[in-house]
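re: ur question from yesterday

yeah so i grabbed the chain u mentioned. its 152 aa long if i counted rite. heres the sequnce exactly as i have it in my notes:
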Amino acid sequence: MINVNVFSNEKAWSKRLRKKEFFFNKICKSFPNKYKFSNKRISFTLLLSNNRNIKKLNKNFRKKNKSTDILSFPSQNKKDLKILSKSNLEIYLGDIIINSKKMNTSSKKLFKKHLDVLWIHGLIHLFGYDHKKDNNYKKMNAIENKLLNKLN
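ran it thru and got these structure tokens back, copy pasting raw so excuse formatting
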């Protein structure tokens, strides 16, 4: 079971997305068991933020003085995550931060679709994947598409 702890420090999110934790936890329940780590208790934190805060985090942690749409901070690498998945311990995947100002759509349906693409991309990073190399990008993209297709 995947549990999402959702926080927001930006009022714009409340106008666009009501019942935030319910929205994200409902989606996580629809994931295939492979991504639930065989029904282990896993969790991550999702911060719904703004331009100023995400720029500050991007500068502090990635040395990039610019705003971005999403940041992911995995708590383990892929190898350690695999080891943890075989234990009886609860697994904390890490943190995802999403910028409200990068959600440029007036349509509620398109907004949620864009939000799904972003946070699932961040979640795949928490699973230990990256897209630095072309073959890693293809693997990550395939997983993202599989999870997104499961939502539709």
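noticed a couple things. The helical segments are 11-16, 20-29, 51-62, 78-85, 108-126, 134-151. also The domain at 2-151 is CATH 3.40.390.30 (Collagenase (Catalytic Domain)).
anyway ttyl
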